[in-house]
Amino acid sequence: MSTKGKIIQSIVMYEVISKRKVALDQLRKGLTTLGVLDEMSKHPPLFESVFTFKPVKLTPATVRDCLKYPDELTDRAQETKMMMTRFVDQSSSARLMQLMQYCTGSKMMPSVQNFAINVNFHCENYISSSTCTFTLLMPDHFPSYGLFELSLNSAFSSSGTSFTSV
């Protein structure tokens, strides 16, 4: 093997195996110290969702199911909730991804049990989200569905890539 080939092989070995092995060895040691590794070995299905990613297909139904609203809503907030349901039901896959990005920071729905986006209402005139707490804060009233849709799409396009979007 040529010198160039040996150098390339060394770089690949480091990038693919060595660099990650140190981190994985530390993780294994930590899990062993805490007794978690032993439990993982005994009950693998319980830990599968923690260590593997299973993408959830974004459909209006999956997004609608993850939206959680307060138990008590005013009549105005109830109207806005119905507009949100209509918005989600009429959304394309791309627009659902924008909604997820705006509320969670990711275009994909997290594959964790009981994942929820908490939708809350206020009397102010702006829409905001917190990607850390998976919260969407909306005005409790819109004069029309057209204005609701325009406001939400505007929020998506003006949010940038910040952690908390206002």
Structure, explained:
A five-stranded mixed β-sheet has the order 1-2-4-3-5. Helices cover 57% and strands 11% of the residues. By secondary structure, it is α/β, with parallel strands linked by helices. Helix 2 crosses helix 3. The longest helix is centred in the first third of the chain and has 31 residues. It folds into two domains: 49 residues, no CATH class; 106 residues, Hect, E3 ligase catalytic fold. The radius of gyration is 22 Å and the shape is elongated.
Largest sheet: 5 strands, mixed
Overall shape: elongated
Distance between the termini: 57 Å
| CATH hierarchy class name of the largest domain | Alpha Beta
Order of helices and strands: HHHHEHHEEEHE
Key features of this structure:
disordered C terminus, 166 residues, alpha/beta, 7 helices, 5-stranded mixed β-sheet, Hect, E3 ligase catalytic fold, elongated
SSE layout and pairing:
Layout: H1 3-33, H2 36-42, H3 44-51, H4 60-66, E1 67-68, H5 75-89, H6 93-104, E2 117-122, E3 128-130, E4 135-139, H7 145-158, E5 164-165
Parallel strand pairs: 1-2, 2-4
Antiparallel strand pairs: 3-4, 3-5
Helix pairs in contact: 2-3
